[in-house]
């Protein structure tokens, strides 16, 4: 069953509500589901671009099982050509109707920019975030700015080529487990 982007977004929101009070992930990871997706392929209802932080697990946060989300993870949820290629693959070939770019509170990459603690290859990530944050030093506001900038970048890259696809922004609150969504981020 193919979902509209609105149905996919509601499914993410409903899954997050379940997650907030859950002790275990409720997604289907059964042998039957593995066999089904092996034989019939994946049909994710959403693409989630998220940070690679070990506390930020989209399949858990949205109570999803095997084959439900196409997840792309990179520190600071920054958008680069590999991320964009992955997103485009999921949209063009797997027909995912929704792309959610999700930042999170207590993000190490964002905090490195705010605190000036970046070095080495990490600068490839923090330099991009620094451009977005400007003078912002409030960690939560910075996290939201970074996620919104990523969502705008994905939306521009898709370039109207996929009019049925909606791009949204989300911020995962690492303390409460709640994901806040922003459908408008310009």
Would you tell me the overall average pLDDT?
A: 94
Oligomer: single chain
In terms of DSSP E residues, the strand content is: 15-25%
Query: Low-confidence parts, pLDDT < 50 over ≥5 residues?
Result: none
Biggest pleated sheet: 5 strands, mixed
Numbering strands along the chain, what is their spatial order in the largest sheet? Answer: 2-1-3-4-5
Beta-strand segment tally: 5
Class by alpha and beta content? alpha/beta
CA(first)-CA(last) distance: 31 Å
* Rg (CA only): 16 Å
Order of helices and strands: HHEHEHEHHHEE
Shape: globular
* Count of separate DSSP helical elements: 7
Residue share in helix: 40-55%
Keywords:
186 residues; alpha/beta; 5 strands; globular
Walkthrough of the structure:
This protein has helices at residues 5-20, 31-40, 58-61, 81-92, 108-115, 123-133, 139-158, and strands at 46-50, 69-73, 98-104, 166-172, 179-182. By secondary structure, the protein is α/β, with parallel strands linked by helices. Strands 2-1-3-4-5 form a five-stranded mixed sheet. Helix 5 packs across helix 6. It is globular and about 50 Å long. The mean pLDDT is 94.
